[in-house]
Write a structure and sequence with these properties.
- β10, α8 and β11 form a beta-alpha-beta unit.
- The chain is of the alpha/beta class.
- It contains 21 helices and 19 strands.
- α11 runs parallel beside α13 and α17 crosses α20.
- It has four domains: about 90 residues, no CATH class; about 130 residues, P-loop containing nucleotide triphosphate hydrolases (Rossmann fold); about 70 residues; about 140 residues.
- It starts with a strand and ends with a strand.
- The strands form seven sheets. A five-stranded parallel beta sheet has the order 9-10-11-8-12, with helices on both faces. Strands 1-3-2 form a three-stranded antiparallel beta sheet, covered by helices on one side.
């Protein structure tokens, strides 16, 4: 229960108030609730996402968060008990008015001044008659309808619980799960941001907890890891995949369950697992480990606030203004379009974050004006743009597609100084037989690569190029072979086994329940 106070929270003397109020002191919180009341409470801290402030949900009796509207909002995820150093979040909590010099702050463990007592007497004088009227009304209602008690209780609970209006955000939910269980499963369809969220979680806690982060996408590698010598954040990314045979899925689940057992017995190991929604849904009967099932964070279900945050992030990142703030010649998104995009809960076939990221790469005002229509057929639109490069009359654009094709066959990463020339010759001969092979040799700082950076790829600090969106990598891989399936075996020696088994399948073995997503795979 929130202990409501009449003054400001003790931001300047936080630790002293915490020690006198809560054991352990890390549970001390002073914040507002959904009724705008200041108060303090002893409660376990939760993770709060960047750009948000903690609040107490009196109806649900738990901590929650709301959007921060200050000028100095938190830029990174933080613990709810650190609000005393988040000034923008402090400003959300109203003071009790102007204090005289002798009045003390009414934080936990302190006295209230005379002015506060006077206000209390006045409040009591006004409240007594109201209470008498209220009691009389309650007696009348009880006599009139004794049968309605249970129903009334349900309706009141339903009225109180939604007052906060903000569902738990995915990153704080994952952080809380990791903080409690040291294990979390990130579930989502292609493009839902599983890898992105895993990376953000790792960055949020690895420094504070002095963890070494280890990314693993092959279960064989897990067998050779040692967890005894150092604190570790283990991220199992892409160990599950849609074309995975059932026997391999069961083996992988067994390995993960063994890791869960290790986590239970170790304070130095944290584990994040990413799982495609299709795999989790199809093989749910094999997941009988309670710790696994209770640690799932679903990235396919985003709150409206999260969808708005994702859109605003990418609009800002791509210098796209709001309609009313755009100067002449600047790209902007119409309010009507923006509202429709935020209200649309899902994007067809791929995750909402990838849809929004692609939309905000538009460099033409016409495309932004129709951006809301993209959500209904994103795969078709992305593929048509890639096809346009491949089928272009301009050599430069064909070379841009060729660069994407090489990157896709290399698993999404391209080191220009370490390319297999035999693969270049083989790929160029098959894709563009009428062009000279030498036209497609890639060089450092090649113009075709720099032209792709605005929308398709990015150059990393190590000089390598990577796809901005993993979903584009998959589509490019499929487009390379959509008219050349008879030659696909020629490329097997150039493609890693991990990539090959994830994106190619014999036509007769393609799962029927995956037919809706067949555009992401090469059937031979």
């Amino acid at each position: 229960m929130l202990n409501t106070s009449l003054g400001q929270c003790p931001y300047a003397d936080w630790e002293k108030s915490a020690r006198s109020s809560c054991i352990p002191l890390e549970r001390f919180h002073c914040l507002k609730d959904e009724f705008e009341r200041n108060g303090w409470i002893c409660i376990d801290p939760i993770w709060i996402e960047s750009g948000r402030c903690p609040v107490f949900n009196s109806g649900a009796k738990k901590l929650d968060s709301i959007r921060c509207n200050g000028d100095d909002c938190p830029l990174k995820s933080y613990r709810s008990n650190e609000i005393y150093i988040k000034k923008a979040c402090q400003w959300h909590y109203p003071s009790s008015g102007k204090k005289n010099e002798t009045e003390k702050s009414s934080s936990p463990g302190t006295d209230v001044g005379e002015a506060s007592h006077l206000g209390l007497y006045i409040a009591i004088g006004v409240a007594i008659p109201l209470i008498l009227v209220l009691v009389a009304g309650i007696v009348f209602l009880i006599k009139r309808n004794k049968q309605s008690t249970n129903k009334q209780d349900d309706e009141e609970s339903g009225a109180i619980l939604p007052l906060m209006g903000t569902p738990v955000d995915t990153i704080p939910a994952a952080l809380n799960c990791l903080d409690t269980n040291r294990f979390v499963v990130l579930k989502g369809i292609s493009g839902s941001g599983k890898t992105y969220v895993a990376k953000n979680i790792a960055e949020s806690i690895e420094g504070k907890n002095r963890l070494q982060t280890k990314w693993v996408n092959d279960t064989d590698e897990i067998k050779h890891l040692s967890f005894k010598s150092k604190k570790m954040m283990l991220i199992l990314d892409d160990i599950f995949y849609e074309l995975q045979p059932k026997a391999e899925v069961n083996t992988t689940i067994s390995i993960v369950n063994d890791l869960i057992s290790t986590v239970r017995n170790s304070k130095d190991l944290y584990v994040i697992v990413t799982v495609p929604s299709y795999v989790l849904n199809k093989h749910s009967e094999s997941l009988n480990e309670d710790d696994f099932l209770n640690s799932i964070v679903d990235l396919d279900t985003l709150s409206k606030a999260e969808r708005e945050d994702i859109l605003n992030h990418h609009l800002k990142k791509n210098c796209i203004k709001d309609e009313e703030n755009a100067l002449s010649g600047e790209l902007y998104m119409r309010n009507r379009v923006k509202s429709t995009i935020v209200d649309t809960a899902k994007c067809d076939l791929i995750g909402y974050p990838s849809c929004i990221a692609w939309i905000c790469k538009a460099r033409k005002q016409f495309d932004l004006n129709l951006a809301n229509t993209f959500l209904s057929c994103p795969i078709t639109r992305i593929k048509s743009e890639i096809h346009r490069l491949r089928d272009s009359d301009k050599l430069q654009e064909r070379k841009m597609f060729f660069s994407l094709a090489v990157m896709a066959l290399c698993g999404g990463t391209l080191n220009v100084e370490n390319i297999d020339e035999r693969m270049i010759q083989c790929l160029a001969t098959i894709l563009f037989p009428k062009d000279e092979v030498t036209e497609f040799y890639l060089k450092k700082d090649d113009h075709s690569l720099s032209s792709l950076e605005t929308k398709y790829i990015r150059k990393e600090a190590d000089g390598n190029y990577r796809f901005q969106l993993n979903i584009v990598r998959k589509l490019v891989f499929v487009i390379v072979f959509e008219n050349n399936t008879e030659t696909i075996t020629e490329f097997k020696e150039y493609v890693s086994e991990n990539l090959w088994k994830r994106l190619t399948v014999q036509r007769e073995k393609f799962p029927k329940d995956l037919s809706q997503h067949s555009t992401f795979f090469v059937k031979v």
